[in-house]
Amino acid sequence: MNFGFAFLSQRTGFDIPFHVVPWSTADSYGRALWVCLLNTLLAAAIGIVLGSLLGFLLGVMRLSANWLARSLSLAIIEIVRNTPQLLQIIFWYVVMIQALPPPRNGLALPGGMILSVRGLNMPSIEMGTAGLWPFLLLVAALCLAPVFRGLRRRHRAFGWAAPLLPAVALMLVLLSIDHIDYPTLRGFNYVGGVVVPPELIALVGGLSLYMSAFVAEIVRASLQGIARGQREAASSLGLSGAQALFLVILPQALRVMIPQLTNQYLNLTKSTSLGAAIAYPELVQIYAGTVLNQTGRALETMFLVMIIFLGINLVISGFMAWYNAHVAIVER
Q: Do 58 and 212 form a contact (C-beta atoms < 8 A)?
């Protein structure tokens, strides 16, 4: 057996049903690798965001004085943590998604979105070139400012104008919108807008719900680890329960959460490979399946998949380590 990557320039001849960037059957295996990588990153990013938000909500509910909220959170956490992750993904795909109505009777959601058995149809926004460049320049300036000045120095440099930056960015985005394309029913399906396939919905739903159960326990333990005197001090200042949580307790608990959250983010990223069980076109399903069978390059394809997942996890670990060092208490 010879080892080489010359096959990456060859024509694939197969279609990838869901792709973030343009794709055709005439594209190469190298292009297919890029398409599958973006699909994997999309599922991981959405799952991390949703899993973190839901996990934080469940963790706070576990400490609630309300018996119903506390018991409901505990029941969800115990059920999710003690059932296989693959089983949950298949449950979302077979039971939840397939139970949705057909496109003609799709569920109308706020914002012009339609949910049906064929996925989630959302409006798409077309940006005009007139207002796009100022917006990109502003985003670039905001991204480069922490690098050259540091977050603290950046706040001092902008001073009172710092709260205006999000408003200015939002205004530029609204000015850049040229047209909103809403999905419309034609025949037996919708046209226009953006379609989120049911495979992505099921994969993200299963991954984020599974991760949220572990994140909830991390949040609960971290909040309970803060000394009671901190809550009493916040109460003596006249802060409400929500203000004490977000302004006093949570910033201190965040320093304890980050190392544990990093492990959960890495686990969710690697678990996107379970999307192959429901035919979501990610790295394992396409490259370790279709590409491997067509080319016969088992060593090369598996090597690429392993290296890519290793690289993604190293990037996530590096970013979380940097953020952990940034929020850590500086000791003298």
A: yes
Does the pTM of the predicted model rise above 0.85? Answer: no
Instruction: State both tokens at 285.
Output: 């399903």
Instruction: Summarize pLDDT for 176-231 with one digit per residue, the tens.
Output: 667 788 888 887 888 888 889 999 999 999 999 999 999 999 999 888 888 778 87
pLDDT in tens, 68-127: 999 999 999 999 999 999 999 999 999 888 888 888 888 888 888 899 888 898 888 776
Q: Which two tokens stand for residue 204?
A: 């993200």
Q: Decide: 318 and 64 in contact? Cβ < 8 Å.
A: no
| pLDDT, mean over the chain | 84
